[in-house]
Design a protein that fits this description.
Blueprint: E1 12-16, H1 40-52, E2 57-60, H2 80-88, E3 95-101, H3 107-121, E4 125-130, H4 135-138, H5 149-167, E5 175-178, E6 183-185, E7 195-196, E8 201-202, E9 217-220, H6 225-234, E10 237-240, H7 245-261, E11 270-279, H8 283-295, H9 299-310, H10 337-350, H11 354-364, E12 368-372, H12 374-386, E13 392-395, H13 402-417, H14 430-434, H15 449-457
Parallel strand pairs: 1-2, 1-13, 2-3, 3-4, 4-9, 9-10, 10-11, 11-12, 11-13
Antiparallel strand pairs: 5-6, 7-8
Helix pairs in contact: 2-3, 3-5, 5-6, 6-7, 9-11, 12-13
């Protein structure tokens, strides 16, 4: 559990998985498989490694559009809830978090999908809620323009409201399974939701019983003003990108203040910044690996992607000059506002050339990259957690599978020795790992027999 919940200082660690690794040139290393991103065996082994390391979860980002230039890195992704269903069959404890958009889905289908994953996995599902900020995605769903930032979040608010109603539409004790009487379930304990809102009209109830966790764990990753407020109202874990300790501390304090303002206990949500660890047996070895990866970046591809992010022409970004002074203001950006600002602030603060900025973004697209020995990586995690900047981390290995294996085999034992990480799982569900209560429905609160057995064995 996070510090502040029980006085423990234990960290929460998620494994954020991406094809051959988060560094965009990782696929070019001799040991990498350029087709790993569509190989379920690759991901199953990664999930088993994360579980061996007692990590809280594995996590997948997603977007309903072809991401980036296909010449740049392995492109396209398997649909994450389908992939996680396969991984659930190969693991027993590690949590399973998938990204899904409220902009290009419907609540009924998505609520059913995550409830199904929660049933299949025995209570390990989590939903990373996003409001998809690309025009490419909009054009795949009968739209010619990207919906406005504010409109996307208004739709997301109602989407989550409907999803919760659907997950709660069956009481925990609705299923009787009474063979003697011939009654399988009690119809009075299944509740049509009758939702009639601005964006959605949903009759309900959901077409499967309440899942082991009641609801999947709700995760959110936006750091704009709207994103922070949304997270403060709904999220149980927040994934965020922060480059400096000071920025991470400010974000941590801000979302906790907002949660309190919305009537929530700030200790009921976890803040988990991303970190891209590049690990070597010596610091020099780690820096050499980082340099090797950066030298494999194709600058023309990376510059084009940076230009799209900054809403400028690639010709306005000479590789050996700093960013132009007249970039668009964040208020004019309808896409990923917070990531835009993070990138610009990083470049301005460190006076990076475009070439240098491309190298810094190549590892984690704006997430903090840290190169060093296992001890130095453990020190970096401990520093941020102890300074009120994080409850744990979204670990984003630069290279997979080797980066995750080194983290599990060499960094995790150091954290355990320092009393900063678990030595065994305390329960079986993702809510158990995160120290979260199982939510009641707003109907009857009788304990389902299956739930009682779970609590006895947790």
């Amino acid at each position: 559990m996070a510090a502040g919940r029980t006085g423990s200082k234990e960290l929460h660690l998620n494994a954020f998985l991406m094809s051959t690794g988060h560094h965009e040139a990782s696929w070019r290393l001799p040991e990498s498989d350029p087709a790993a991103h569509i190989d379920v065996r690759h991901y199953v082994e990664l999930a088993r490694t994360a579980e061996r390391g007692l990590m809280d979860s594995v996590f997948f980002a997603d977007s309903p559009a072809l991401f980036s230039d296909v010449g740049r890195r392995p492109a396209g992704t398997l649909e994450p809830t389908v992939l996680l269903a396969a991984m659930a069959m190969a693991t027993e404890r590690v949590g399973l978090i998938a990204t899904a958009s409220t902009t290009y889905n419907e609540p009924y289908n998505l609520a059913r999908r995550f409830a199904s994953l929660d049933h299949l996995s025995g209570g390990r599902a989590g939903w990373n809620i996003v409001t998809t900020a690309t025009l490419d995605a909009a054009r795949n769903f009968n739209l010619t323009e990207l919906p406005a930032h504010r409109d996307r979040y208004l739709r997301a608010e109602e989407f989550v409201e409907v999803s919760r109603k659907l997950w709660d539409s069956w009481d925990d004790d609705a299923v009787l399974g009474d063979k003697a009487s011939g009654q399988w379930a009690d119809q009075s304990r299944v509740h049509p939701i009758g939702h009639d809102g601005d964006h959605f009209h949903v009759a309900g109830a959901l077409n499967l019983p309440r899942s082991p966790q009641g609801r999947p764990v709700l995760v959110q990753a936006g750091s704009s003003e709207d994103g922070r407020d949304f997270a403060a109202r709904h999220a149980e874990a927040i994934f965020t990108a922060q480059q400096t300790l000071e920025d991470a501390q400010a974000f941590y304090a801000d979302v906790r203040t907002r949660a309190r303002r919305h009537g929530r206990d700030p200790d009921s949500l976890l803040v988990l910044p991303g970190i891209v660890p590049v690990i070597g047996s010596t610091e020099a070895e780690a820096l050499a690996l980082e340099q090797q990866l950066d030298e494999l970046i194709r600058p023309e591809h990376a510059r084009n992607q940076l230009a799209r992010t900054l809403r400028v022409d690639p010709d306005d970004l000479p590789l050996d000059r700093e960013l132009p002074a007249d970039l668009p203001d964040e208020d004019t950006i309808e896409g990923a506002k917070s990531r835009y600002t993070l990138i610009v602030d990083l470049a301005r603060r460190e006076r990076l050339t475009v070439r240098q900025l491309i190298g810094r973004l190549g590892g984690g697209r704006g997430h903090r990259t840290f190169s060093g020995t296992p001890e130095q990586v453990a020190d970096a995690l401990e520093e941020w957690a102890g300074a009120g900047a994080a409850d744990g981390f979204n670990v984003m290995p630069a290279v997979l599978p080797s980066g995750l294996e080194v983290f599990v085999d060499q960094v995790v034992p150091i954290l355990q020795q320092r009393g900063l990480f678990r030595r065994e799982y305390a329960g079986t569900t993702l809510r158990d790992h995160y120290g979260l209560e199982r939510p009641d429905t707003h109907h009857d609160h009788h304990a389902h027999p299956r739930t009682i057995r779970h609590q006895e064995t947790a």
